Amino acid sequence: MKRLHLVPVLLAIVAFSFPAKKQIKIFLAGDSTCAIKETKAYPETGWGMPFFNFWDSTVTVVNRAKNGRSTKTFIREGLWKSIVDEAKEGDYVIIQFGHNDESKDKAERYATPDTFKMNLTRFINEARNKKATPILFTPVSRRKFDKEGNAIETHTAYSALTKEVAKEQNVLFFDLDEKSRALYQQFGEDNSKLLFLQLQQGEHPNYPDGKIDNTHFNELGARLIAQLVLSELRKLVPDLAERVVQLKTK
Q: Is residue 250 within 8 Å of residue 75, measured between CB atoms?
């Protein structure tokens, strides 16, 4: 009987030995390649959509990425402010821009190189001021191959600017541009189409005329990009590695 009385004591000791992990949020600041999509856009899928499935109950993913946003419009429309207002100590802020900042033909989106760097630096500093941890990503690559079948860079200038800011600010950094391009190369020029919003005429009711899109992902592509992100985060941030859902095996 005495042994039975020891059970609650032992359970209490175990509980105090392994304190509960703090609830945290991972904010996603970015563009259409990461954003949540409306049903009418399906099967287009931002990588931020499957990303939330990877985490245990201590993590809330807050995806504020929006279609067509650059650093400039993300600030102007108050999207960045919404992250700063909500972020708390222990949270993480993933920052991925460049696709729309480099669009010189769209003045409302375009950010000059100096403005782009200034905006990224602002994001980093303001996240840090809230005692959140910023993580800077290069823009995910578009699908483009040369005549020899090599996946080629599509964000050369703005990826380089992002790397400069990461180095200058000594911030956690992931070269998603390079890693995604390597993924496309692994699939090859033809098979990499399977990762993107590529539809034949009549193949899907949302796109009756078909769709050839080498920027935006389908479900498979979004999940594989999200897995690239997860793999890197597990290496960069031990705290996050401990919060990944563990698959139960028999």
A: no
